[in-house]
Design a protein that fits this description.
CATH topology of the largest domain: Aldehyde Dehydrogenase, Chain A, domain 1
CATH superfamily of the largest domain: Aldehyde Dehydrogenase, Chain A, domain 1
CATH architecture of the largest domain: 3-Layer(aba) Sandwich
Bound molecules: nicotinamide-adenine-dinucleotide
CATH class of the largest domain: Alpha Beta
Number of strands: 22
Helix content: 40-55%
Shape: globular
Strand order of the largest sheet: 14-15-16-13-12-18-19
Strand content: 15-25%
Radius of gyration: 23 Å
């Protein structure tokens, strides 16, 4: 068992990568500008990072295009590309403590989560797509014998990857793995709050054997570097994870530029439904607490709307309060901490604003709603509002913090109606013993993933992940994601 002191000492010895990574080299932004990288647990400056803008994005895209055209990666035998990705997965495992620390220092998540979930998830993802690289088969169309019509999958070219700060490396790996496995070159724009881990990954990719120019990173702000990537005439696709609002910008950028493909993993307001015949109330209560408090609630699939059958409401609330009481808010470098700091001051204010608004609109505060008194950084206590109605702001908008809205319903139909009363459709959970009803409800709830009698139990790579409605379109994970980074080509050969 590691201690806080172990991690504090290790953090003190870290060597941050602070420059952009373009064409296999760390370089300053052409403007020479840098931006401050803040540790949200202490509110102190961690380091200064190169602030890329349009000029740097142009350089990165040029390098990515040249590498793609040269074919060192795109035309490499897929099995060899796969071996390099698996080597990268091994390097991630070997450097897991450093990478986990970068995540924790950069965005405030508990080190125990970074070590147990984020970094192993990255290695698993890269390894999985490494294994998959030579498993994507082409087709021969069923023509008559006078022709041979081949349908082949080809890489798209240059992929722009724009990611958020809540799982900085994992969200990037969900795109890097399939994009590289398919033979593309990539330019990644990490979130301005959390650029450090992806910069280190770029270096590890080079060590694993990814050719120069194939893997580029341009740290910087959304309105400058992100926008430049979205509007670039030589980027073939944008793979985006982030808010629905910014996802809509990327569709506009595509329309204003070269009609690049866009895949969007956006926000959520996921319903977590507990029916009267829930098979295990203790397990459901513990899952309900985990679903909203894991990663400080900064999770796109957070179970932020808890829908309780009136018949079990009182009993369930007692169990939920017990489960929530086990959360430990504290220094993210302490392995005992389960709830770390929110990513930045602006976000802290946003979350506190939602808490105030919930009170004003008549929701009943059952837990939290406060900031821990003894902390400098951007912490919020686990918060639960009861007697929330579906029209309240706290029930409608994505808060992206540790704030749970509890609502009640009577019967299956009302549960589904409330669950679907949202612009989002990313995930949902249903606790229910009656398997026929569980199937019926799972079909009726509009969400990309529905968990029955559990909440997000594994990091399984075999299942597609993504949303319905304004949670976006396109899928990460699974072989479907691999297809997304390719295009179909038909070659018709007339034989006679
Ligand atoms: P965000 O949309 O503010 O930023 C995401 C990325 O877009 C960042 O890299 C940012 O710099 C960039 N960006 C911001 N404004 C831009 C602009 N005008 N033009 C181009 N790029 C711009 O999101 P965030 O605050 O970093 O992350 C939280 C959001 O991400 C939440 O809505 C959450 O639900 C979502 N998210 C979704 C998933 C999913 O898989 N569906 C996973 C994680 C997070």
């Amino acid at each position: 068992m590691t201690t806080r002191e172990y991690w504090v000492e290790k953090a003190a010895g870290l060597n941050f990568r602070r420059q952009a990574f373009i064409n296999g080299r760390f370089v300053d932004a052409l403007s020479g500008k840098k931006f401050e990288n803040i540790n949200p647990a202490t509110a102190k400056v961690l380091t200064q990072v190169a602030e890329c803008d349009e000029a740097d994005v142009n350089e990165a895209v040029k390098a990515a295009r040249a590498a793609f055209e040269a074919g060192h990666w795109a035309s490499m035998h897929p099995a060899k590309r796969g071996r390099i990705l698996m080597k990268l997965a091994d390097l991630v495992r070997e450097n897991r403590e450093e990478l986990a620390l970068l995540e924790t220092l950069d965005m405030g998540k508990p080190i125990s989560d970074a070590m147990a979930i984020d970094i192993p998830g990255c290695a698993r993802c890269l390894h999985w797509y490494g294994e998959a690289a030579d498993k994507l088969m082409d087709e021969i169309a069923p023509t008559d014998p006078s022709a041979l019509a081949m349908v082949t999958r080809e890489p798209l070219g240059v992929i722009g990857i724009v990611v958020p700060w809540n799982f900085p490396l994992l969200m990037a790996c969900w795109k890097i793995g399939p994009a590289l496995a398919a033979g593309n070159s990539i330019v990644i724009k990490p979130a301005e709050q959390s650029p450090l881990s992806v910069l280190r990954l770029a270096e590890l990719a080079q060590e694993a054997g990814v050719p120069d120019g194939v893997f580029n990173v341009v740290p910087g702000f959304g309105e400058t570097a992100g926008r430049a990537l979205g509007l670039h005439m030589d980027v073939d696709m944008i793979a985006f994870t982030g808010s629905t609002e910014v996802g809509k910008y990327f569709m506009q950028y595509a329309g204003q530029s070269n009609l690049k493909r866009v895949s969007l993993e956006c926000g959520g307001k996921s319903p977590h439904i507990v029916m009267g015949d829930c098979p295990d109330l203790d397990a459901a209560a513990s899952a309900a607490a985990g679903a909203i408090f894991f990663n400080q609630g900064e999770v796109c699939t957070a179970g932020s709307r808890l829908l309780l059958d009136r018949a079990i409401k009182d009993e369930f609330m007692d169990k939920l309060m017990t489960a929530a009481g086990k959360q430990v808010v504290g220094d993210p470098l302490d392995p005992a901490t389960t709830l770390g700091a929110l990513v930045e001051e602006k976000h802290l204010e946003r979350v506190l604003g939602y808490i105030d608004r919930a009170r004003e609109e008549g929701a009943e505060l059952k837990l939290g709603g406060t900031r821990p008194a003894d902390r400098e950084g951007y912490f919020v206590d686990p918060t639960i509002f009861d007697n929330v109605t579906p029209d309240m702001t706290v029930a409608r908008e994505e808060i992206f913090g540790p704030v749970l809205s509890v609502m009640t319903f009577e019967g299956e139909e009302e549960a589904v109606r409330i669950a679907n009363d949202t612009i989002y459709g990313l995930a949902a959970g249903i606790w229910c013993r009656d398997i026929s009803r569980a199937h019926r409800m799972a079909r009726a709830v509009r969400a990309g993933t529905v968990w029955v009698n559990c909440w997000d139990p594994t990091g399984d790579m075999t299942i597609p992940f993504g949303g319905f409605k304004q949670s976006g379109f396109g899928r990460d994970k699974s072989l479907h994601a691999l297809e997304k980074y390719t295009d179909l080509k038909t070659t018709w050969v007339q034989l006679s």
